[in-house]
Amino acid sequence: MRAPISVVIPTLNAATALPACLAALVEGLQAGLIREVILSDGGSTDGTRALAEGWGAEVVSGAPSRGGQLRRGCDAAQGAWLLVLHADTVLAPGWSDAVQDHMAGRAEGAGWFRLRFDQRGLAPRLVAGWANLRSALGLPYGDQGLLLPRALYDAVGGYPDQPLMEDVALARALRGRLTRLNGVAVTSAEKYRRQGWLRRGGRNLWTLARYAMGASPEALAESYRRS
């Protein structure tokens, strides 16, 4: 019987962060869970592609758009389950047990990991706490990982080909079929350190609010790039 999970990772110049993300997946390979790892690259120029191929991952390429990249990666996947990760997210040890428990107990539902940052302190704890609360209310972001059956992914239409908020769009489509996995996704705090915890956290909230009020993903992405 083939391993059930296709791991899909969108990348763009991710050579620095990617090795830790891939190394954490070895646990799943040893547990017989991972069938393939697919990197959906948006035109990296820093050696991301060569690094991924060195790890034995499949690489698909296309225009740099998070939603479009995820859609291409998932389209190429052959597993009965999809595990979508960001390149700067590292699954904490024990994640494979959490995944197996979920697949055994909720065969038709999707799951997300509890978020933790790779930095200690009050600000990281508060931001992660808010993210986990938001996720419990049905709105996990992509940096928390997403595990779901391929059949469910197809049934809700998959990731939309849009440059921003693709994870929110899919979470909305999965509402009522999302649950927390008993595992942790450790994500990079680099952007928060560089931009400031309050500034970046506020900007993320404002972007989500604008999207909820009907702003287009293209306009939000342009605003995101300018700031």
Task: Give the low-confidence spans.
Answer: none
Helix content: 40-55%
Shape: globular
Count of distinct strands: 8
Order of the strands making up the biggest sheet: 3-2-1-4-7
How would you characterize the largest beta sheet?
5 strands, mixed
Report the sheet-strand fraction.
15-25%
Average residue-wise pLDDT: 95
Q: Using only CA atoms, what is the Rg?
A: 16 Å
Question: Alpha-carbon distance between the termini?
Answer: 49 Å
Q: Number of DSSP helices?
A: 11
Secondary structure class reads alpha/beta
Taken in chain order, the helices and strands follow as: EHHEHEHEEHEHEHHEHHH
Descriptive account of the structure:
It is a single chain. It contains 11 helices and 8 strands. The strands form 2 sheets. It has a 5-stranded mixed sheet with strand order 3-2-1-4-7. It has helices at 18-24, 26-30, 48-54, 66-76, 95-105, 122-136, 150-155, 166-173, 190-195, 197-212, 217-226, and strands at residues 5-11, 34-41, 58-61, 81-84, 89-91, 110-117, 146-149, 178-187. It starts with a strand and ends with a helix. The protein has 227 residues and is an alpha/beta fold.
